[in-house]
Amino acid sequence: MGFFQLQPVTENYENTIERILTIDNFNRIRKLSIVLFLINVILLFIDYLNNLRGLWMTNDGYKYLFFSHIVLGMATLFFVLISRRIIVHSPDDITLAHKFYGSLFALFSLSLAAVTSGWIDQKIHGQLTVYVIVCIIIAVICDYKPKVTALLYGLSLATFMISLTISQMDPILRQAHYVNASILVIVSYFLSAVLYKFKRQDLLHKYYLEDLVTERTKELQIANDMLSKEIQENKRAEKEMAKLDRLNLIGEMAASISHEVRNPMTTVKGFLQLLKYKQETKDKEFFDLMIEELDRANSILSEFLSLNRNKPTMLEWLNINDIVNSSLPLIQADAQTNDKLLTVELNMVPNLQLDVQEIRQLLLNLVRNGFEAMPKGGELKIRTFSTNIEVVLVVKDQGNGIEQGVLEKLGTPFFTTKEQGSGLGLAVCYGIVARHNGRIIVETSPAGSTFYVYFRIEQLGVSTNP
To answer: Is 386 left (phi over 0), alpha (psi -120 to 50) or beta?
Structure first.
């Protein structure tokens, strides 16, 4: 890479830069043609004054100068009209006509200046003023590739030398003009090449930075999306941890007081059963009610004890399908009692380290919640399947779904929407799954709710069982 190239040039950059340079040349030359047409009107008026002063009669050069101004006026008017027919609004609109328009105007201007200075001006004052001015203007205003610039100046220099050879008879003066014109063309060429490279490098640097900013913006957007996702995951994990902490706290409370409460309850129940048979028949129903309420309190304490996260879990290698099959008679009885339909789909899954009593309790709690959420005739589906890393237990009902506010509080101890509920059923489920290092995902809609219970597959000792 040279002085003017600070970053690699791709074909896309090259094409974009050339289109931008072409549209710049087109717009500048369109404005230049308008300016030259207006200047030419002034020059024609000067030619008219020269004619009045009789200069045309004394020197034919003034007459030829008038004709060159006529040609310049007609040509610039032609270029002005053409530029209005091929207006370009963006680099994507560039065609071959726009490139040809700029190159043709530059060639015409240099050639007319070469003829004017090499032939007409030699008859008047023998100077190269017009050719010098036009060469510098084209070098500064137009941005052409070095090859195109060399061709334009080379043709104009050839035209100048031919015109000078025809008009200038003095060999010394003619030789001096040859040298001056050659130096002028070389200087103009290098000036044009340097300005072209600077302009091209400026555009290249601009678009390189734009692409770099776009690329970095995409990278930052990806990083921001990943960060947002991570923040959401952290918030979800914090909620899960807070929920598990509450379960753990309540479980520890349960472990410390439940046994102490159960002992007097068992004594009271025993004496109530004893007294029941010693009382008159009319009072037995009250004893039945008290014993029933004690049994209900005892079941709540059992659920309360299940919340203990530190509760000892008896893990052994089992297949969750076997646990589902062993629980089916009880589940089918519940389904018939509640006039509900039951569908079971058990796919082949690997064995896991499970506590059979806890998984059975988990399944029964989810199934009973599903039955209670559905009207009569509703269908509940139990399904198992596995992925590469997890075994999934699915319980799907056809209830009315779960409201968003309720969904966020699922698993919170003592939170329930049932009139006779204790709010411990799902809390027990979340506690059991936590002790098995699993997770619960709930999907809900007006058509029903689906509970997905995920158990991670162990890497060692994995086997499958239908």
So the answer is: beta
| Residues facing 74 on adjacent strands | none
- List the one residue out of 388, 334, 356, 370 whose CA is nearest residue 449: 370
Task: Please choose, from the candidates 399, 441, 394, the residue with its C-alpha nearest in 3D space to the C-alpha of residue 417.
Answer: 399
Write phi, then psi, for 60 (nearest 5 degrees). Answer: -65, -20
Using one digit for the tens of pLDDT, what is the confidence trace for 6-59? 445 566 667 777 888 888 888 888 898 899 999 999 999 998 898 888 888 888
Instruction: Kindly tell me the sign of the dihedral angle through the C-alpha atoms of 337, 338, 342, 346.
Output: negative
- 454 beta partners: 392, 439
The C-alpha atoms of residue 180 and residue 171 are separated, in whole angstroms, by 14
Q: Tokens 């087109």 — which residue?
A: 26
Burial class (CB in 10 A: 0-12, 13-18, 19+), 100: exposed
The strands making up 448-456's β-sheet, listed across from edge to edge, are 341-346, 379-386, 390-396, 448-456, 439-445
pTM across the whole model: 0.47
H-state helical runs in 7-92? 11-52, 55-58, 60-85
Taking the C-alpha atoms of residue 334 and residue 17, their distance in angstroms, rounded to an integer, is 78
- Going by C-alpha positions, the residue among 176, 137, 139, 135 that lies closest to residue 157 is 135
Q: How far is CA 257 from CA 250, 252, 304, 415, in A?
A: 11, 9, 10, 21
Is 78 within 8 Å of 36 (Cβ atoms)? no
Query: Going by C-beta distance under 8 Å and a sequence separation of 6 or more, which residues neighbour residue 165?
Result: 174
CA distances from residue 394 to 261, 353, 404 in whole angstroms, order as listed: 36, 18, 20
Q: pLDDT digits over 389-433, tens only?
A: 999 999 999 888 887 766 666 666 655 555 555 556 677 788 888
Q: Which two tokens stand for residue 241?
A: 């941890």
